[in-house]
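Sequence decides. Our protein:
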Amino acid sequence: MKLADFDVLSFDCYGTLIDWESGIYVGLKPLLSRAGLDLVRDAVLEAFADHESRQQALTPAMPYAALLAEVHGQLAITWGVMPDAAEAARFGASVGDWPAFPDTVEALRYLKQHFRLVILSNVDRESFSVTNWRLNVVFDAIHTAQDVGSYKPDTRNFAYLLDRLAGQGVLPGKVLHVAQSLFHDHVPANAMGLASAWIDRRHAAGGRGATAPVSTDVRYDFRFTSLGELAAAHRAGG
């Protein structure tokens, strides 16, 4: 199997193209300060992941900005302080402030010359529209959790993606899903029979970070530590 075997790259965005863990951690610092806590970064991210995945399962139709605000309030209670609605709303609106990884823009610019690029993201349309300018590429399609009415790892999100590609004559075997999160992306990609490339952004840090733990074996067809590595592998014919 080679990268050149595919016509479409479908991307998770946050965690893969955008450094969401840094964005989340910075966004939660005011709450941590108010709670008088000095938690290590991974402890903060794991607490966030536990609340976020639970809330997504409970309220699949809730727009992501509102869901982030809800999670912020839950974390406030977990960390022993009163929820603050204004602070929670600012956290919910912070998605557009989350930075792109240093290799993202150049890699996307290269990949756009060789593939159709599609977003399959767990955010709402408004949040992604603010992020989109950071990526400096025109995507061929953008599908959000708000469009689908569910959050990954629900396989409905992948069925939605494949259905729309099928309407354009694209077969599933020509789609490579590119993502960091094993939990949100590779597990359901496996279930749908999609080939996938793991962008192992946490290769140096270890641990699960801002994603829920994976309780099953996960398969992926390619592994890279950055999107730049994926682009370089394609350039080299691999």
About this structure: The chain is about 45% helix and 10% strand. The mean pLDDT is 96. The first helix runs from residue 20 to 35.
